[in-house]
Amino acid sequence: MDKDELKIKELVRTEIAPPNSSIGVLGWLKENLFSNWVNVVLTIVFASITYLVLKNSIEWIFFNANWHVISANFRLLVVGQYPVTELWRVWIILTLISILMGLSWGIWKGTIGHLSTIVTGLYIILASLPFVMIETRIWLLINIIAIVATCLVGRKGLKLKKFILVGWFMMFPVIIFLLSGFGIFNHVGTNLWGGFLLTLLIAIVAIVFSFPLGVLLALGRRSKLPIIRWFSIAYIELIRGVPLITILFVAQLMLPLFLGEGINIDNVVRAMVGFTLFTAAYLAENIRGGLQSIPRGQFEAAEALGLNATFKMTFIILPQALRAVIPAIVGLFIGIFKDTSLVAIVGLTDILGIGKNIISNPEFLGTQMEVFIFIAVIFLIFCNMMSYASRRIEGALGVGKR
Amino acid sequence: MNKHSSSTSTPFWRDKRVIPILLQVIFAVIVVVAGVFFFSNALAGMRQIGMVFGFDFLGKMAAFDIGDKVIDFSSKDTYGKAFIVGILNTIKVAFIGIILATILGFIVGVSRLSTNWLVRTVAAAYVEIFRNTPLLVQIFIWFYAVFLSFPVIEKSLDVFGLFYFSNRGAVIPWLGLTPSSFIWLIAFLIGIILSFVVWKIRIKRQVETGQRKYPFFWASSSIVSLLIIAWFVTLESPLLLSIPEIAGRGYLGGYTIGPGFGALLVALVMYTASFIAEIVRGGILAVPKGQVEAAKALGLKSPTILRLVVLPQAIRIIIPPLTSQYLNLIKNSSLAAAVAYQELVGVGITILSQTGRSIEVISIVILVYLSMSLFTSLLMNIFNKYSQLVER
After folding, report:
1. I need a labelling partner for A39 at 20 to 30 A (CA). Which of A295, A351, B157, B280 fits?
2. Which residues does the UniProt record annotate as the domain ABC transmembrane type-1 (chain A) (predicted)?
3. Where is average pLDDT lowest: A126-135, A173-182, B175-184?
């Protein structure tokens, strides 16, 4: 019996071989590139375009580009005019973040793990760049060790989750405190914060401060009280209807005028205020979407439990609403992060502003492409990391699947 | 229950009818006080430098010229007219940009779903790169590293003797009007209407009789025959093709796209197209699979399926996010200020620096943008209504 069956199977296998055109390299090529004559033409056209673009890019990157402009201005591009003697504060901040990242990596793994791996990779690449100073290399090494060591600590399954979350939330005030000094260290004015550091800071400030404002506006827009509702609608639609750059100009030119003489705030803070007001309007619309997705039953159930309006919102409705719109919010944050480059137009020295200054320096004549490509690549890396995280979160939350 | 005693026993600050009103009054007072505070500060500040709020400056002579203009403008014209030139420039960039970005976006979006691996991958790479870098950086790359890095005009890059590229901008062949252009235009318009009518009639016949009546052939031939008539009447071509050539230190003929306009337009189109591509892809993926399978079962070819089955259904999902992309493009055109192209914001900044009228200038800019946004979303909403599913 068994033997016969095997024999038959063998017979079948030898005589009716599976069509091998769909497997193997050739099969793959046929299926994916040359399935019919339209595809053949498309493949040839796209292959030649790709070849030309890649060939020229590679030639330019490795032979023609003058990367000296980046190595000579590297510190300027990263931290701007931040005093060299105080740079250790920036390093401390980075190390703190590395520690938190490492711990989160060890405990949660998953998305944060992938991100930490990428960050570690970036540290290693940075440390191996030829023009980087010894001091920078030492700090980078400390960071790499910190991230790996804390990851191992976290993996031990320590019950640190709450502390880490608190740590992440405390990071923002700590960063501002360390950067500015506030009398304990030497004071470093915001006018000296620059480069990529400033880009990141404006984005973080806009995100942190716009969040409560956005939630309030979203609730206001759905409020039953007409005055509050109309105010929220007017604010949101006004801000969303005009370009960000006009808001930045309002913040730069008119904020000092509106605030009167007593209050003096500098350029950077003005830009931060503008960004926060801008982000809040967009965030409010995202959150409103989340609020609308909450079924009526949730409201009714909360009311049946006797919760008052405040408790109902904070404990039942908002957590669900925010969870539903996390991907949309991450998308918004990516947009905000990219838009921070607009402060270069109102004269701030974020990474793009510095880049613009560098190319106007006669010493670096004709290096526009190198400078802007470098900046573009930095944004590309960070935005891709963020959108990767957002996709993972989306998957983990099962948004759109339930 | 005793209504009277309960309403008298509740203190007014806990009364459900009073709280909302009280809250709103408090809120309104805060808003009004803040508003008054801000504006009195602003007015006081302006008075100190001897300025009064008002729009009288719009009638004064603008002491600057605008390089790229749709209507005549010189430095002797007023600030008000400068604003109008700026608005027209914004509309020009937005209009051309929207059309080009839509075409490119649809092509890339469909390419991302191609069965051809190479096409799919190239489209994906395009989207990833252009979506994840700031628009301003892209504008700078096109402006400083591409348009301004072209050779000087005497050594212009020459493509087939039709296109010239120099650091003054790109010059392309352009169409000029002839005396009979108007007649041609009328013939063309009548042709369009006629062909539409013919097409409708033919389609109706085809549906009624079940025989092929070639509606497309008849519709297009009615346009062509009208254009042939126009040719016999005018004995002149409708438009004159003007091919550019280098004449000393300038170009003769053709249409010159200045570096600012060129960089802005290319960057806006490439950037917005990457977003539109994702919207198109999402819209197509959202069409139920069964629809495609059913169409295949009927024996339709895949381009036909895309055109007649998938896209009409996808368009319903695509239009709302597409609208916001169009609005974004219009708003993003304000980044022209960074490359010295004089559209609304660029003109506004120049006027502001000349007159110091920050509040007035910025409020004009804001008002114009708000009305443009409203107008665009109105148009798209009408279009949206047309494309909606009609159910019972």
Report:
1. B280
2. 196-390
3. B175-184
Distance of residue B241 Cα from the nearest chain A Cα, in angstroms: 30
DSSP per-residue letters across B243-305: --EEETTEEESSEEE-HHHHHHHHHHHHHHHHHHHHHHHHHHHTS-HHHHHHHHHTT--HHHI
Q: How far apart are CA B240 and CA B232, in angstroms?
A: 17
Task: Calculate how close chain A gets to B115, using CA atoms only, in Å.
Answer: 6
Query: Residue A245 is nearest to which of B27, B132, B335, comparing CB atoms?
Result: B335
What average pLDDT does range B83-99 have in this prediction? 91
What is the ipTM for the molecules in this complex? Answer: 0.84
Q: Which residues from chain A sit within 8 angstroms of residue B374, using beta carbons? A: 241
In the numeric block, which tokens belong to residue B290? 């069964």
> What does each C-alpha distance from B114 to A298, B109, B137 come to in angstroms?
43, 9, 30
Q: Which of A258, A310, A369 to mutate to test the interface with B (most CBs of B within 10 A)?
A: A258
Max distance between CA atoms of chain A, in angstroms, equals: 101
Categorize the per-residue pLDDT at A3 as very low, low, confident or very high, splitting at 50, 70 and 90. Answer: low
- Judge contact between B322 and B279, C-beta under 8 A: yes
**C-alpha closest to that of A102 among A139, A147, A143, A140:** A147
pLDDT at A20 (0 to 100): 55
Alpha-carbon span A2 to A22, nearest angstrom: 32
Q: Determine the CATH number of domain B79-147+258-387.
A: 1.10.3720.10
Average pLDDT over residues B76-95: 88
Confidence grade of residue A128 (pLDDT, cut at 50, 70, 90): confident
Instruction: Check A50 against B122: CB less than 8 A apart.
Output: yes
* A245 to B148: CB separation less than 8 angstroms, yes or no: no
> Using a CB-CB distance cutoff of 8 angstroms, which residues of chain A are in contact with residue B270?
none
Q: Give the dihedral of Cα atoms A32, A35, A37, A43; nearest 10 deg.
A: 10
What is the pTM for the complete model shown?
0.84
Chain A residue with Cα closest to B352: A253
Which 3 state secondary structure label does DSSP give A1?
A: coil
Question: Which of B145, B338, B369 lies closest to A368 in CB terms?
Answer: B145
Q: Which whole-number Å values give the CA distances from A273 to A194, A217, A267, A312, in the listed order?
A: 17, 16, 10, 31
Interface of A with B in 282-341 (CB under 8 A): 334, 338-341
Contact of A359 with chain B, judged by CB distance below 8 Å, is answered with yes
Phi-psi region of B236 (alpha: psi -120 to 50; beta: other; left: phi over 0): beta
CATH architecture of the domain formed by A191-401:
Orthogonal Bundle (1.10)
pLDDT per position as a tens digit, B288-302: 889 889 999 998 888
Nearest to A197 by CA among A93, A334, A95, A96: A93
Where are the CATH 1.10.3720.10 domain residues in chain A? 191-401
Q: Do A254 and B362 touch (CB under 8 A)?
A: yes
Distance, in Å, from the CA atom of A203 to the CA atom of A378, rounded to the nearest integer, reads 15
Q: Closest approach of chain A CAs to the CA of B39, in angstroms?
A: 6
